[in-house]
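Lab notebook, bench 4. The sequencing result for the construct came back, and we need a structural model before the next group meeting so we can plan mutations. Quick request posted to the team channel:

Model the 3D structure of this chain.
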Amino acid sequence: MSTSEIKQNREARFSRLYELAYTDVLRFIQRRAGPDHAEDIVHEAFLAAWRRLDELPIEHDDARAWLFATARNCLLNNQRGQARQGALAVRIAARTPTYTDAEAELTHQRIDLTSAWQRLRPEYQEVLATTIWEDLSSSQAGQVLGISSAAYRIRLHRARKSLRHELDASPFPAPLAGSLMTE
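Done. Here's the predicted structure in token form:
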């Protein structure tokens, strides 16, 4: 038997199994999980059947029973996942702090900085990031960026000026602390 014939036989066997068992397996899951996730769970079970088609029983009723068991396992996995998500949401909600005015102001500053950063030209983002995170001298930073130290200092000046302009244009302009804006 050639490879293409084997592939065709696999596809035909799977198609027949799908045609004969899909509705039964779907109803089986709907009775246990409701209609919301039933189709996804059944498709997951049939995906497992496709992957393990050579291991499935040959008899239709036995293969159908195998599909029921696999669909049930998929349902249980889905339910465990939903329970973990729910538990995580509860833990997050329980740990969500209440903010003071100072913390709210800091949050506004971070939001302003983030949006101002995103509006900067990529070369300005790069020179500022190199300045802030890498702690390099002008000549070292210029070497990293492939420009002279003088070009680096000019670009850094322009980047700071552009960032200040973007921050001043934000809806809640706030002074930015730290060495980012110092010259």
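The CA atoms of residues 105 and 174 lie 8 Å apart.
Will bring this to the meeting.
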